[in-house]
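Hi all, posting the design record for the shared folder.

TITLE: backbone redesign
STEP: 1 of 1
STRUCTURE INPUT:
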């Protein structure tokens, strides 16, 4: 079975000249044999090894050659099972060559190649016997490699092969056999080669650095596989520091090419160092003055010697990371001399170290938190160095530092809360704000780093939750937001890359929030904390991992923090009143206690530290108590005295008076001795030493002190202070150097601006990191986005608008639009209507307003202006998606719509409602169609624009030749139309039915206000208003009153025909047509709108009468069944009635009336009288043909059947008697109204109409048989209709007969007489018993007598003279038969019988004998005779 290559392409073989196929097991011996031959061949080329010599009597050959030849003899006997062969047997001869100082560079190089090849064999694995010792001797031999330098080229080859072998040791399958010490040796040796290569070729330099990166990557790539131990620093001797499941493939897959391009070409060593002999072992690392003492750093075993000898794991990683931090320390300390720092102090050293650290962080990732020693290095030493190098003047170093911090944030932020806060505040924000002398390049790098962080979706949310909502931390989120917004503003200058970069950060923030919208907790809107005092410094969250707990907690903390900031301002203005104000704000208890005041001083940001110092140093008893409570808030355990003092005095300014200083230091000393009594014997010793440290600090760092205190002076000054004994000299010496190296800041910063990181401040950072609250991890839910959005929204809109105004690149404009749309989404989601309005106003400033340009020029400009196009698209996208939350912004949106309307590029169906016919909705080909629809009553004006010319061309208006629009103009017009079409402006109005109530009302009000601009705008806005009204039919009451008042104002204020009033009138009709079928409960309100048409000025009404009537007719035909009320029908019938005498409109009006009245289809109790009156008006009207009048009469006559039907229905219905009587009375009155209306038509001068009317009146009276008429109505019928009709007809006939007597006049009188007679007979039975019957009967007789005696032009009418006696006879016979007229027993001339015959004789004397023959009278007389009776009727004397 052959060996498998376990190295991926380009890994360990990359330095060996390419990949090769590894031999099978049976060929291993042959390979080793060939390597032996190769080494021997090279050795024989040298004169020293090529001639045969005898060194002594016992040895014929040199030991190196002899051992190789002996190996050759044995190898073929091991080939069966190589893993059982001790590798030292076949590797040692090669190592001897490498270790020999007699061999030259070529021989050493070949031997190194042989070792490299053996390492790559599959037999060299963890299963190989004694592999650990073999790996150790290889590493040790390579470290101690010795050779003679013959030429520079061969020397570089050897160095490269050394690097190759060292990397192969790390990458081979047996690498797990290496100990921690071996790993440190490999790294140390590689670093020495890096040092040596600085005077060599650039190729060697790059390979050496690359190898160093590969080593670090290979080592730290195993960190995730190392099991964490409980306490690595206290492992017993012989135990493993770490255990690793060494997965070669996973390890090698993570090895990638390091960032060697970021490293300078030279590392800067002493060019005069000897190069005649390359010696890498102890002579360089320890003895050579110009060599590095790196081994001392790397080989100091942190966990003891045994831990370093264990298989490699955490100890070596700790040493390597610590050493890399040491490199940064060397680079940081400018006073380090060349003896201790072989690498020149320049940009290259920190870059090299930072690059290695970055590789380690990338591969170790979150696994660092599992290992306390590594994590502690990162938290303290590494981050401290990052803070220092972050302030470097080199943008390259700053960029690398920012990359490391970004990696640390992504992987270890939960362990680095305070460190990250310090880095953001003291480095990134300080540099980016350009107030501290940083270059533009530095500012740009810092800004890029901030923006990179902002692009992390949860970064800003975590900054807000962990810092802005923590009372002990600065407001990082607000600081970053303010910085980005200010940096995005181009102030008095052109737009730069920095502005765009800052804007990108802002937009990334709001886009991150918008992506999280809708994923917040259901109970996220928690109320603020209850009123009342609470010790705010004691408030803790029960579980920082549960959003249901920490979200309310951080919101509460934010509220407390805001109050504390206000309280701090009050205290800074007046401490005494400030404390009272704090009590009123429930930040301090009603009765002040020292602890609460001390905690207020300790944990509140923004308090004047001078005031704190004065307060704490005051001799007042309460102040002294506060001072001691203040000291108790510090934890000085395991802290050096100088560090404790730095921490303590960093929270306030030490007072200048000696007594105050003493009181303060006494409190400090008491607390320090209480917690750290290891060296100091009592608190007095702590007090004296603290005084001495303060004096030393002042002496050493005050420029006015010329003679500085020496170390001996300091030690001498502190003799016998420790209870009469001396403190350890080493202890005092350490204090002295600490103070000299790093000043204690006696005048702390007041917190204005971003502070510079100092050693004292870093001690505070580390201290704070131990007591701070846990870091809160935010997921994709928008727990705090509302609070954050309130802070960042305003500045973001302002900055984005300014950049959008000044930018020219489309990608920048698009980025601005994306940001504004994200803000719009958030504003709508959080119901921030005013903010959304502000956003709309900002965008509308960039929409097309080309007032100074012609239409042609404006359209061309619109198509070419990307800013206007994007702003327009954004405005209408917002209006369509978030219209529910727009209030005052509708005004600006409608102004934009009107601007596009004036450009004539809006869709033709923009003002359509959902029920419009497809024919009405389709876009018109004519670009001026909208204008032509707005002004239908006016002659279209000739347009000089290309749109007008285009429209005239399409409409074949060829009266005069016009220049055709150019292709460019047509293309621009088409492009502009396309842009507007994509905006879906019509959806704003068609989908207004989905708007919330308030937004809909705002839209309607804005449409009305926008209409006041000019007449064209008024017409267009009215169209839109009508469309919105129709689209909101289901909630019409929300806007009805507003719409009604607006249209009413237009209708009543216009005195001449114009497009606006025309649109208003027909809009009214359209609204009624569309809404009546759906809103029966609002029928009267809708028809109330129609009353506006009745209020039109006469000139306006006359101009539009015909189309109005046609629309009313359509309305009636479509909605007659939906109108039930009298008020509604009165409005409709009134509109129909007024057309009766209008030449153009009367036909349509009569058709509408015919539709209502024909066969009683839509006649109702509510409209019967109205329809009857209207029909009378059409019958009387002479505008139409006579046939129409006759038809109107027929409609009236036929309507009596409806009355009969209603009467019968009322009779059959079960109800109260009173209701029945009331209904019968109403129906009777309707019948009477019908009779009166017909009576009026019976007086028409047109014979045909008059006679037909009389006939139909007779028919209508006859139809009363089916109606339950109250008896009094018959008397009213005769008194008000029939009798006056006969009287007036007779008078008219007499008047007309003076001119000429027409036969039709005679016919009219005949018909009228018949009418009276038949009506009387019909009513006879009902009225004969009524008291007024006699009067009525006499009235009939009077009319007959008058008609009989009347002469026309000197002679009587033959037909009338013949007809009346006959009718009278018939009437008398009926009366006789029914028993109404019988010979009575009453005596006197006033009896009914006497009166009847008295009048009858005047008409026809012979009628009595014909009706009542004498025999019948005599018989009746005998039957009822009495002695004293006289004859009933006197004798007829002729």
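Okay, here is what came back for every position:
SEQUENCE:
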């Amino acid at each position: 079975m052959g060996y498998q290559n376990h190295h991926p392409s380009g890994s360990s073989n990359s330095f060996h000249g390419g990949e090769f196929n590894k031999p099978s097991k049976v060929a291993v011996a042959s390979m080793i044999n060939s390597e032996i031959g190769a080494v021997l061949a090279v050795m024989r080329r040298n004169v020293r090894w090529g001639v045969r010599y005898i060194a002594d009597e016992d040895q014929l050959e040199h030991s190196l050659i002899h051992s190789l030849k002996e190996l050759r003899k044995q190898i073929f006997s091991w080939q069966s099972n190589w893993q059982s062969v001790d590798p030292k047997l076949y590797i040692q001869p090669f190592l001897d060559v490498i270790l020999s100082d007699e061999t030259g560079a070529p021989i050493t190089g070949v031997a190194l190649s042989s070792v490299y090849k053996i390492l790559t064999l599959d037999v060299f694995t963890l299963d190989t016997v004694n592999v650990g010792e073999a790996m150790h001797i290889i590493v040790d031999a390579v470290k101690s490699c010795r050779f003679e330098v013959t030429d520079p080229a061969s020397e570089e080859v050897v160095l490269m092969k050394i690097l190759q072998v060292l990397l192969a040791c790390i990458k081979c399958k047996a690498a797990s056999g290496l100990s921690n010490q071996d790993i440190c040796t490999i790294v140390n040796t590689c670093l020495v080669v890096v040092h040596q290569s600085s005077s060599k070729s650039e190729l060697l330099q790059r390979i050496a650095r690359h190898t160093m990166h590969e080593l670090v990557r290979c080592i730290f790539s195993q960190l995730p596989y190392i099991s964490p131990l409980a306490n690595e620093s206290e492992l017993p001797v012989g135990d493993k520091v770490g255990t690793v499941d060494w997965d070669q493939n996973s390890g090698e897959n993570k090895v990638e090419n390091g960032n060697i391009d970021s490293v300078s070409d030279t590392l800067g060593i002493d060019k005069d160092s000897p190069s005649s002999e390359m010696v890498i072992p102890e002579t360089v690392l320890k003895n050579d003055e110009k060599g590095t003492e790196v081994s001392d750093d790397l080989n100091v075993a942190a966990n003891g010697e045994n831990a370093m000898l264990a298989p490699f794991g955490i100890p070596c990683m700790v040493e390597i990371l610590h050493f890399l931090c040491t490199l940064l320390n060397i680079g940081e300390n400018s006073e380090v001399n060349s003896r201790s720092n072989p690498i020149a102090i320049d940009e290259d050293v920190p870059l090299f170290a930072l690059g290695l650290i970055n590789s380690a962080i990338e591969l170790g990732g979150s696994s660092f938190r599992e290992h306390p020693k590594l994590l502690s290095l990162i938290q303290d030493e590494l981050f401290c160095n990052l803070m220092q190098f972050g302030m470097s003047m080199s943008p390259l170093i700053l960029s690398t530092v920012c990359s490391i911090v970004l990696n640390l944030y992504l992987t270890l932020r939960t362990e680095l809360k305070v460190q990250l806060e310090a880095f953001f505040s003291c480095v990134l924000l300080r540099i980016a704000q350009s107030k501290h002398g940083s270059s533009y390049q530095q500012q740009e790098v810092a800004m890029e780093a901030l923006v990179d962080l902002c692009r992390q979706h949860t970064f800003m949310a975590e900054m807000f939750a962990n810092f802005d909502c923590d009372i002990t931390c600065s407001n990082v989120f607000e600081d970053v937001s303010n910085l980005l917004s200010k940096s995005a503003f181009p102030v008095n200058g052109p737009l730069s890359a920095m502005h765009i970069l800052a804007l990108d950060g802002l937009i990334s923030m709001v886009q991150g929030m918008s992506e999280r919208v809708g994923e917040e907790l259901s109970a996220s809107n928690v109320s603020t904390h209850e009123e009342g005092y609470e010790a705010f410094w004691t408030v803790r969250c029960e579980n920082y991992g549960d959003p249901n707990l920490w979200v309310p907690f951080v919101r509460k903390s934010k509220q407390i923090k805001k109050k504390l900031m206000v309280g701090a301002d009050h205290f800074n203005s007046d401490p005494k009143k400030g404390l009272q104000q704090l009590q009123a704000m429930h930040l301090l208890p009603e009765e002040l206690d020292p602890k609460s005041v001390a905690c207020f001083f300790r944990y509140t940001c923004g308090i004047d530290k001078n005031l704190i110092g004065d307060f704490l140093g005051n001799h007042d008893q309460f102040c002294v108590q506060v001072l001691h409570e203040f000291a108790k808030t510090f934890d000085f355990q395991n802290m050096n005295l100088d560090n404790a003092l730095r921490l303590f005095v960093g929270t306030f300014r030490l007072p200048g008076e000696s007594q105050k200083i003493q009181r303060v230091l006494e409190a400090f000393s008491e607390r320090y001795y209480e917690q750290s009594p290891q060296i100091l014997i009592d608190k007095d010793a702590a007090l004296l030493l603290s005084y001495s440290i303060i004096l030393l600090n002042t002496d050493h760092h005050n420029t006015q002190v010329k003679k500085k205190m020496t170390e001996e002076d300091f030690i001498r000054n502190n003799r016998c202070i420790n209870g009469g004994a001396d403190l350890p000299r080493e202890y005092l010496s350490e204090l002295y150097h600490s103070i000299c190296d790093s000043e204690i800041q006696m005048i702390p910063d007041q917190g204005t601006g971003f502070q510079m990181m100092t050693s004292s401040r870093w001690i505070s950072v580390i201290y704070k990191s131990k007591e701070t609250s846990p870091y809160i991890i935010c997921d994709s839910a928008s727990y705090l986005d509302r609070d954050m959005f309130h802070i960042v929204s305003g500045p973001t809109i302002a900055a984005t608008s300014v950049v959008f105004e000044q930018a020219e690149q489309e990608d920048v404009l698009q980025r601005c639009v994306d940001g504004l749309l994200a803000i719009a989404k958030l504003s709508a989601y959080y119901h921030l209507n005013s903010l959304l309005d502000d956003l709309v106003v900002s965008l509308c400033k960039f929409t097309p307003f080309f007032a100074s340009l012609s239409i042609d020029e404006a359209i061309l400009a619109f198509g070419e202006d990307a800013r206007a196009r994007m702003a327009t698209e954004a405005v209408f996208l917002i209006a369509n998606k978030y219209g529910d939350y727009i209030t005052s912004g509708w005004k600006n949106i409608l102004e934009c719509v009107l601007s596009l309307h004036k450009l004539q590029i809006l869709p033709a169906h923009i003002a359509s409602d959902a029920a419009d016919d497809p024919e009405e909705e389709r876009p018109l080909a004519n670009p001026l169609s909208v204008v032509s629809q707005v002004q239908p009553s006016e002659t279209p004006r000739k347009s000089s624009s290309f749109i007008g010319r285009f429209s005239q061309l399409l409409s074949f208006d060829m009266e005069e030749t016009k220049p055709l629009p150019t292709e460019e103009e047509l293309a621009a017009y088409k492009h502009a139309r396309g842009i507007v079409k994509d905006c879906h402006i019509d959806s704003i109005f068609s989908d207004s039915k989905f708007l919330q109530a308030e937004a809909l009302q705002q839209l309607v009000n804005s449409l009305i206000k926008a209409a006041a601009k000019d007449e064209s705008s008024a017409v267009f806005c009215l169209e839109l208003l009508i469309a919105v009204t129709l689209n909101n039919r289901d909630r019409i009451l929300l806007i009805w009153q507003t719409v009604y008042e607006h249209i009413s104002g237009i209708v009543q204020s216009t005195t001449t025909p114009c497009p606006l009033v025309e649109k208003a009138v027909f809009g009214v009709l359209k609204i009624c047509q569309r809404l009546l079928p759906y809103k029966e409960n609002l029928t009267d309100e809708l028809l109330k709108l129609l009353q506006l048409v009745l209020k039109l000025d006469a000139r306006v009404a006359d101009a539009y009468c015909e189309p109005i009537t046609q629309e009313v007719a359509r309305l009636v035909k479509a909605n007659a069944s939906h109108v039930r009320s009298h008020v509604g029908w009165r409005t409709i019938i009134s509109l129909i009635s007024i057309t009766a005498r209008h030449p153009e409109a009367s036909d349509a009006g009569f058709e509408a009336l015919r539709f209502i009245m024909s066969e009683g289809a839509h006649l109702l109790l509510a409209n019967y009288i109205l329809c009857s009156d209207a029909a009378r008006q059409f019958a009387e009207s002479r505008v139409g043909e006579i046939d129409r009048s006759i038809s109107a009469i027929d409609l009236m006559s036929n309507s009596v059947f409806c009355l009969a039907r209603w009467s019968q229905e009322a009779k059959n219905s079960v109800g109260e008697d009173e209701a029945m009587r009331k209904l019968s009375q109403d129906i009777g009155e309707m019948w009477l109204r019908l009779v009166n209306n017909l009576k009026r038509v019976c007086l028409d001068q047109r014979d045909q109409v008059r006679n037909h009317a009389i006939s139909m009146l007779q028919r209508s009276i006859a139809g009363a048989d089916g109606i339950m008429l109250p008896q009094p109505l018959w008397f009213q019928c005769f008194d008000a209709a029939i009798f006056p009709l006969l009287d007036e007809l007779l008078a008219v006939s007499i008047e007309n007969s003076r001119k000429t007597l027409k036969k039709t006049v005679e016919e009219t009188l005949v018909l009228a007489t018949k009418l009276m007679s038949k009506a009387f007979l019909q009513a006879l039975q009902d009225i004969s018993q009524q008291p007024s019957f006699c009067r009525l009967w006499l009235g009939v007789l009077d009319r007959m007598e008058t008609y009989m005696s009347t002469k026309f032009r000197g002679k009587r009418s033959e037909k009338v003279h013949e007809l009346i006696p006959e009718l009278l006879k018939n009437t008398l016979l009926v009366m006789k038969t029914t028993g109404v007229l019988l010979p009575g027993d009453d005596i006197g001339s006033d009896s009914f019988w006497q009166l009847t015959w008295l009048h009858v004789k005047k008409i026809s004397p012979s009628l009595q004998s014909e009706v009542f023959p004498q025999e019948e009278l005599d018989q009746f007389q005998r039957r009822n005779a009495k002695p004293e009776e006289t004859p009933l009727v006197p004798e007829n004397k002729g």
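COMMENT: The mean pLDDT is 79.
Let me know if anyone wants the other runs.
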